[in-house]
Amino acid sequence: MTRWLWRRVLQAVGTFAIAVVLMFVLMRLAPGDPLSRLQEGRPMSPAEVEHLRRLYRLDQPISAQFAEFVGGVFTGDLGTSIEHGLPVTTLLASRLPATLLLGGAAILLNFTLGLWLGVRQAVRRGSREDRTLTLLSLAGYATPSFWLALVLAWLVGIRLGWLPVAGMRDPLLAPDAPWLARALDMAAHLVLPALTLSIVTIAGTMRYQRNALLEVLRLPYIGTARAKGIPEISVVWRHAWRNAVFPVITLFGLWLPLLVTGSVFVEMVFAWPGLGSLAATAASSRDYPLVMGAALLAAGLVVTASLLTDLAYALLDPRVRYS
Amino acid sequence: MSPLGDALARAWRDARGRTGALILAAVAVGAAVGPLFLPDPLAQPCVLTCRNLPPSLDHPLGTDDLSRDILARVATGGRISLSVALLAVALSVTLGAVTGLVAGYLGGAVDTVLMRLVDAALAIPRLFLLLLVLAVWEQVPVAVLVLLIGATGWFGTGRLVRGEVLRVREEAYVRAAEALGGSRRRIIFRHLLPNTAGPLLVAATLGVGDVILLEAGLSFLGLGVQPPTPSWGGMILDAKSVLVAAPWAGLFPGLAIVTTVLAVNLFGDALRDAVDPRGA
C-alpha cells in the first residue's frame, strides 16, 4: 500500500511537471506580443517599451525565460500581473476563498440533489419520471453556463427582484453589521451562482448514481433482503445505496475540470470576486502572467483532485488492488 | 451490413437517437438555407428607431442593440458555430485516432511518452489551454480558431483509441494477419482502425456538443469568433449589456445552443448504447 501510494504521488507530480512545460510552450508558440495591449491606449516611446520588456524578462533568451518560469513555480513567484501591477500569487490567493465558497456550495448542491435524483431514477427505471429526469439533466448539460446565469439573473434578480445578482456582498451593508446579517447577505448572493453551476454539472452525478445503483439492485443479496420482508425504502438506501455510492466518488476527479471551467463564466456574469472572473478578465485584457498563474492553479487542482479521488477510492473500497 | 452501419441503424430505432437526429437535421438545414432567405445579418436598416425592437412580423426574433435582425444573426451564427464544431472535431478525431493507433500498436517507449503527454494535457482544463494561447494571440481568424480548438481536443480520444487497440491487437485474427506477414500499415488500417470506429464515432458525436459549448464560451469572452461576424456566444455577449432593455436578444441564441447541443448529445447517447449495449 505504501509503495503504491508513493508511486501514485510521484506520478501526480510528474503529470503536473509535464503540464507546466506544456503551458509554457503553448504560450510562447502563439504569435503576438504580450505587451501589444499596453500600446492600445497610447503609443509608447522605444525607451518605455524597452523598460517593460526588461521588466517582464521578454528581452531574455527563451531558455532563460523558461528556467525562470520553472524556478518561479517552485518558489511561488509567478511574476507580476500586467493589468493589476501586483504579484500573481498575491492576486490568486486573494481570490481563492470566494471560489472555494462558490465551488463548495455548488458541489454540495450537485451531490445532494444529484445523488437523490439518481437514486429515484434507478428505482423507477424506465418510467416517465426516469425519462423526464434524464432529459432535464441532459438539457442542463447542454446549457451554456453563462447563458443560464444571464437568464436567472434576469428572471430571479431583475424581474422578480428576489435575489441579488452581482458580487458577494451588499455594498450598502455596514461592515460592522451583526455576523448573522452579513452571513445571510452572502448566502443570498451565493444562491444564483451556485445554482447555475450545479444545474450545468448535475447530469454526470445523476447518470453515474443511476447506473451504479442499477448494477447493485441486480445482485442476489438485494433479492435476499427483499425476500426477508425488509421495506423497500430500507433495501434501497441501507442495503443497495451504500455499495452504489463508490463509483460516484470517482466522478469527482472527472468533474472538477467542468467546475473550474464553469466557474470562469458564472463568476464573470455574477461579478463573483473569485479566480474564475479573475481568469476571464485576465484573458480578455491579455494579462498573460495572470492567465498563466490561473491555468497553473487549475491544473494543480485537477491533478490533486484526481490523486485524492484515487486515494479515497483505495481507502474506501477494499477490493482495489495496489499493483 | 457493416458494424458501423448497424450501430447507426440501431441508434435511429432508439427514440432518443431519432429525436436528436431529426432536430439536428432541422438545425443544419436552417443554418445552411436560412441565411439565403433572411436579411443581411450585418445590415443596420436604420440607426436609431430600429434598435432593440421586440419580436414582430418584420423581425420575428426582434433586433439587437445595433438594429440588426436577430433571426438572421442566429441563422448565420449557426452556420459559423456548426462549421467550427464539425471541422474542429474532425481534426481532433484524426489526431486522436493516429496517436492512439501509434501508441497502442507500437507500445513500449513511444506509448509511454505519448500517454504521459496525454495525461499532462488532460490535467489542464481545455478552456485554460485555449485561454493561454488566445491571451497573447489577438484577433484570431476563424480558421485558426478551428485549428486551436481541434488541436486541444484529441487527448481523450487518443487514450480511448489506444485502449481499444490494446484490446484488439491480441485477438487471434490480428495475430494471424501478423503471422501471414501483413504489413504494419495493413494491420493498422485494415484490422485495428475499423474496430475502433464505433467508440470513435461516439466520441466524435459527443465532442461536437462540447465544442459548440466551448466555442460559444470563447466568443462570449470576446476571444472566439470576432465581431461583426455573428456567432451564438458572441450574440449573448452583446445581449449582456442590454439585458434589461432587450432580454430577447440573448434568449434566442442561447436557446439555439441548448437545442443543438441537446440534440447532439441525445443522438450521441443513443449511438453509445448501440455501439456498446452493455451500458444501456
Strand content of chain B: under 5%
Measured between the Cα atoms of the first and last residue of chain A, the distance is 9 Å
Mind summarizing the main beta sheet of chain A? none
Radius of gyration of chain B: 22 Å
Major sheet attributes of chain B: none
Q: Greatest chain-chain interface?
A: A-B, 59 and 49 residues
Structural notes for this entry:
The complex is a heterodimer of chains A (323) and B (280). Chain A has helices at residues 2-29, 46-55, 62-75, 88-123, 128-141, 145-159, 179-217, 220-227, 232-244, 246-269, 275-284, 288-316. The model of chain A has no long low-confidence stretch (mean pLDDT 85). Chain A is built from 12 helices and no strands. The longest helix of chain A is centred in the middle third of the chain and has 39 residues, at 179-217. In chain A, helix 4 packs antiparallel against helix 5 and helix 5 (128-141) packs across helix 7. The radius of gyration of chain A is 24 Å and the shape is globular. Chain A is mainly alpha-helical. Chain B is mostly helical and 280 residues long. Chain B is built from 11 helices and no strands. The longest helix of chain B is centred in the first third of the chain and has 37 residues, at 70-106. The model of chain B has no long low-confidence stretch (mean pLDDT 87). At the A-B interface, helix 1, helix 5, helix 6, helix 10 and helix 11 of A face helix 4, helix 5, helix 9, helix 10 and helix 11 of B.
Topology:
The complex is a heterodimer of chains A (323) and B (280).
Chain A: H1 2-29, H2 46-55, H3 62-75, H4 88-123, H5 128-141, H6 145-159, H7 179-217, H8 220-227, H9 232-244, H10 246-269, H11 275-284, H12 288-316
Helix pairs in contact in A: 1-12, 4-5, 4-7, 4-12, 5-7, 6-7, 6-10, 7-9, 7-10, 10-11, 10-12, 11-12
Chain B: H1 3-13, H2 15-37, H3 70-106, H4 108-123, H5 126-134, H6 142-151, H7 155-169, H8 172-179, H9 184-220, H10 232-240, H11 248-275
